[in-house]
UniProtKB/TrEMBL annotation:
<feature type="transmembrane region" description="Helical">
    <location>
        <begin position="7"/>
        <end position="29"/>
    </location>
</feature>
<keyword id="KW-1133">Transmembrane helix</keyword>
<dbReference type="GO" id="GO:0005886">
    <property type="term" value="C:plasma membrane"/>
</dbReference>
<feature type="transmembrane region" description="Helical">
    <location>
        <begin position="77"/>
        <end position="100"/>
    </location>
</feature>
<keyword id="KW-0472">Membrane</keyword>
<feature type="transmembrane region" description="Helical">
    <location>
        <begin position="120"/>
        <end position="138"/>
    </location>
</feature>
<comment type="similarity">
    <text>Belongs to the CPA3 antiporters (TC 2.A.63) subunit B family.</text>
</comment>
<dbReference type="InterPro" id="IPR007182">
    <property type="entry name" value="MnhB"/>
</dbReference>
<dbReference type="Pfam" id="PF04039">
    <property type="entry name" value="MnhB"/>
</dbReference>
<feature type="transmembrane region" description="Helical">
    <location>
        <begin position="35"/>
        <end position="56"/>
    </location>
</feature>
<keyword id="KW-1003">Cell membrane</keyword>
<keyword id="KW-0812">Transmembrane</keyword>
<feature type="domain" description="Na+/H+ antiporter MnhB subunit-related protein">
    <location>
        <begin position="8"/>
        <end position="132"/>
    </location>
</feature>
<protein>
    <submittedName>
        <fullName>Multisubunit sodium/proton antiporter MrpB subunit</fullName>
    </submittedName>
</protein>
<dbReference type="InterPro" id="IPR050622">
    <property type="entry name" value="CPA3_antiporter_subunitB"/>
</dbReference>
Length: 144
């Protein structure tokens, strides 16, 4: 058995990966109001998948992801592009933040915004770019 493929690493990866992904969502959602945001959240999410890849291999990590990382990258770019159009639709300058408050059951409100849409785009772009590179490097190493 390979030293980097130990039972301890495999077990730790199964417990840490969901926590890392949850933390990445937390960083993403608080990023437009406080420190955090799409970039660092994308790095944390990528780190979770890379930890799984180191533990279980490229094939298992690709099957866990269920989508090609290049598709995530493309979707992220589309989200970023889509975040500029609401300002244009209401006559504001390009990239002006727009906010929507949606009433929720129980009396609360859900605050949605174009900065959040942009952050989601950055998140998906970072995850897609990093995992595309890591998968390609890992695949090349395993083929050699």
């Amino acid at each position: 058995m390979n030293e980097s493929n130990t039972l301890i690493l495999r077990t730790a990866a199964l417990f840490l990966m969901p926590l890392q992904l949850l933390f990445s969502v937390f960083l993403l959602l608080r990023g437009h109001d406080e420190p955090g945001g799409g970039f660092i959240a994308g790095l944390v999410a990528s780190g979770a998948v890379v930890l799984f890849l180191f533990s279980y291999g490229v094939r298992e990590a690709r099957s866990l992801l269920r989508v090609d990382p290049r598709d995530l990258l493309a979707a992220g770019l589309l989200f970023g592009l889509a975040s500029v159009f609401p300002a244009l639709l209401v006559g504001d300058p390009l990239m002006t933040a727009q906010w929507w408050y949606l009433p929720m059951p129980g009396g609360g409100t859900l605050k949605l915004s174009t900065p959040l849409i942009f952050d989601i785009g950055v998140y998906l772009t970072v995850v897609g770019a990093i995992l595309t590179m890591v998968f390609a490097l890992s695949q090349a190493e395993s083929d050699a």
